[in-house]
């Protein structure tokens, strides 16, 4: 990844804007040295130590003011990718649950509201991988969609439920841009977006690769999902940052090269959100009751099970997942599992029987929302 500067890329922003942004977005330096080790075993242990130190430091600092995760939609996902190399049940799909995370943090520029993973489910359905599955049903595809991808809520519905207005949203971010269409939120250059004040926080590597996809990536990105999104609404990050008090974005390449994780300091410890793994089970496979995971982990010594549909960087993904679970620490109730709040999480579904999570924490809610 790019390490020439820790400052966000703000070439498209005015100097006043840059100053404003740099007082809210602060670089984190904990991982910079460890990432430079080229030998993977050395990098793994250096990153693990850096993650422990980062965890201690973050726990000694203020918490977010508000944190809420809300169900959006369940979608089918190939088992062979979800539990890379270890599935044994002949059930080709699992169900993963996509959530929206609404977070408010104090910053030196006042309270800021951030949406993590605001998925536009209808637009995302254009992603080639999903489209191929639903198109197979021909005229029955709307029925099939309802069966395989039941929607619990929309982003707009969640905001209404919370009493938030579109103009209240200051930042949006995704752990990576697979399946995402940002035009409804940020505009496409012709039509304004729904969130007039929101900026996208994204790793530079993710933004640039999503705008010039290679053939192995195309299946998982929404065609034109970024087309026309004004560059001044995009903050390209070079590395790890804090967003005000209690929310960190940590570069965790692997699932995609520009993948990042959200770390939120809550009353229940550090909640880590990512799609490198599809739920807490994948971060403690030796304790999992999901068929195949424990056996595979014990046979191989794997500390984590990769979500391997694209494997843009397999070894990096392994190291990133170890970092994620080290930062998260142990869940306060499910003591065998780390405190992960994955953005695409394995969930039980009668339509795809056979796989259910050993640990699932449900929708989370901490603190009181402040309305502007
Ligand atoms: Zn993905």
Summarize this, please?
This protein is of the alpha+beta class. It has 12 helices and 13 strands. Keywords: Hydrolase, Metal-binding, Zinc.
Number of helices: 12
User: What is the molecular shape?
Assistant: globular
Question: Which architecture does the CATH hierarchy give at level 2?
Answer: 4-Layer Sandwich
Strand content: 15-25%
Helix content: 25-40%
Overall tally of domains: 1
Report the top-level CATH class: Alpha Beta
CATH fold type: Metallo-beta-lactamase, Chain A
Stretches with pLDDT under 50, minimum 5 residues: 1-5
End-to-end Cα distance, whole Å, is 37 Å
Name the CATH superfamily assignment: Ribonuclease Z/Hydroxyacylglutathione hydrolase-like
Instruction: Indicate the mean pLDDT.
Output: 92
* Overall strand count: 13
Bound small molecules, which ones? zinc ion
For the biggest sheet, the summary is: 8 strands, mixed
Q: C-alpha Rg, in Å?
A: 19 Å
N-to-C SSE string, H for helix and E for strand: HEHEHEEHHHHEHEHHEEEEEHHEE
Give me the secondary-structure category.
alpha+beta
């Amino acid at each position: 990844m790019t390490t020439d500067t820790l400052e966000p890329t703000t070439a498209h922003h005015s100097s006043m804007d840059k100053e404003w942004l740099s007082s809210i977005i602060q670089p984190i330096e904990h991982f910079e040295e460890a990432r430079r080790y080229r030998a993977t075993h050395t990098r793994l242990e250096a990153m693990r130590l850096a993650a422990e130190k980062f965890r201690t430091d973050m726990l000694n600092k203020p918490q977010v003011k508000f944190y809420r995760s809300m169900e959006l939609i369940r979608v089918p996902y190939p088992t062979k990718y979800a539990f890379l190399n270890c599935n044994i049940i002949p059930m080709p799909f699992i169900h993963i649950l996509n959530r929206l995370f609404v977070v408010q943090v104090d910053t030196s520029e006042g309270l800021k509201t951030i949406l993590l993973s605001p998925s536009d489910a209808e637009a995302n359905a254009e992603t080639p991988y999903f489209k191929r599955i639903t198109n197979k049903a021909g005229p029955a595809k709307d029925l099939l969609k309802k069966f395989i991808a039941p929607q619990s809520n929309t982003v707009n519905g969640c905001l209404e439920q919370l009493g938030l207005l579109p103009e209240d949203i200051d930042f949006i971010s995704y752990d990576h841009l697979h399946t995402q269409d940002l035009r409804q939120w940020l505009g496409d250059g012709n039509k304004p977006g729904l969130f007039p004040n929101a900026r996208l926080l994204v790793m530079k590597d993710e933004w640039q690769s999503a705008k010039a996809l290679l053939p192995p990536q195309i299946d998982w990105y929404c065609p034109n999902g970024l087309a026309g999104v004004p560059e001044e609404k995009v903050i390209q990050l070079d590395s790890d940052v804090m967003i005000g008090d209690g929310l960190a974005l940590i570069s965790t390449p692997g699932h995609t090269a520009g993948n990042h994780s959200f770390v939120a300091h809550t009353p229940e410890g550090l909640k880590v959100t990512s799609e490198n793994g599809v739920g807490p089970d994948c971060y403690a496979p030796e304790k999992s009751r999901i068929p195949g995971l424990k056996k595979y982990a014990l046979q191989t010594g794997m500390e984590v099970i990769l979500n391997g549909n694209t494997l843009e960087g397999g070894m990096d993904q392994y190291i990133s997942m170890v970092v994620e679970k080290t930062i998260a620490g142990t869940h306060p109730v499910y003591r065998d599992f780390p405190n992960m709040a994955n953005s695409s999480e394995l969930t039980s579904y009668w339509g795809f029987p056979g796989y259910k999570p050993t640990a699932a924490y449900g929708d989370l809610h901490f603190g009181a929302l402040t309305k502007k």
